[in-house]
Write a structure and sequence with these properties.
globular; Phosphorylase Kinase, domain 1; alpha+beta; 5 strands; 27% strand; 2 helices; single chain
């Protein structure tokens, strides 16, 4: 599993992002995922919690697209035994790219 990326995610950034949600989280690694047409998508693997986390980084011009994705996820009705995405955190910082952590 890669631990550095040419689009800006580092272990330190991944760890800091995850600690905001789960203070005891220990990031073991991450890798870029394929298929994000607008956002850059990463899978973050942690020792705790053991479930992989998806981090999406959107260009500033597409912050509205992230808001739409958050809205669509809010419409999902989780069914028992069926994996359903949910949002851990949504950020729109003033000086860096918007991010969505699922």
């Amino acid at each position: 599993m890669k631990t550095e990326s040419n689009v800006g995610l580092t272990m330190a950034i991944a760890q800091a992002s995850m600690r905001k949600h789960c203070p005891s989280c220990v990031v073991e690694g991450f890798e870029a995922c394929h298929g994000g047409n607008i956002s850059t998508v990463y899978e973050i693997r942690c020792a705790h919690p053991a479930q992989p986390i998806i981090l999406k980084v959107y260009p500033d011009t597409f912050h509205w697209k992230m808001a739409k994705e958050v809205y669509v996820y809010s419409l999902f009705d989780p069914a028992e035994g069926v994996p359903t995405p949910f949002i851990l955190r949504r950020t729109i910082p003033k000086r860096s790219c918007p991010t969505l952590t699922c």
